[in-house]
Amino acid sequence: MGKINISLIATIVPLVIVAIGLIGWVLSLRSDVTTVVEQQVVLEEKAESLETRLNDLEKNLAIADDQMKTIMGDHLGFNDVLQELGKSGILPSGERRSYGGYGN
User: Fold this and answer.
1) Which member of 8, 72, 75, 82 has the greatest number of CB atoms within 10 A?
2) Residue 74, φ and ψ in degrees, nearest 5
């Protein structure tokens, strides 16, 4: 009976140690997976925020580009008017500014 108890203990103790180790490993793995999922959610939210900001930036750049084209077109018109006024002698003698040429 003493030998049976020793062999039984020699068999069960390593199994209990392995079971405890596996339980600890599974709990650690579960914690790691939970942390990764939480970080993924945060990254997805930040990606959506960045996409919204980039879309707004593209829209604002398109508006600014359109306004710049309008202003440059006005400057080209100013250049033509000043050229004509200069030819007719209406401008003050020192006025020699040139508008336009922004597309060159």
Assistant:
1) 82
2) -60, -40
C-alpha–C-alpha distance, residues 54 and 41, integer Å: 20
Angle at 71 between CA 66 and CA 73, to 5 degrees: 95
Of 68, 64, 87, which Cα lies nearest the Cα of 76? 68
Is pTM beyond 0.70 here?
no
C-alpha 73/C-alpha 80 separation (Å) is 11
Q: Tell me, what amino acid is at 104? A: N
- Cα distances (angstroms) measured from residue 49 to each of 37, 54, 90: 19, 9, 57
Average pLDDT over residues 47-76: 92
C-alpha to C-alpha distances, 28 to 22, 31, 35, 37, nearest whole angstrom:
10, 5, 11, 14
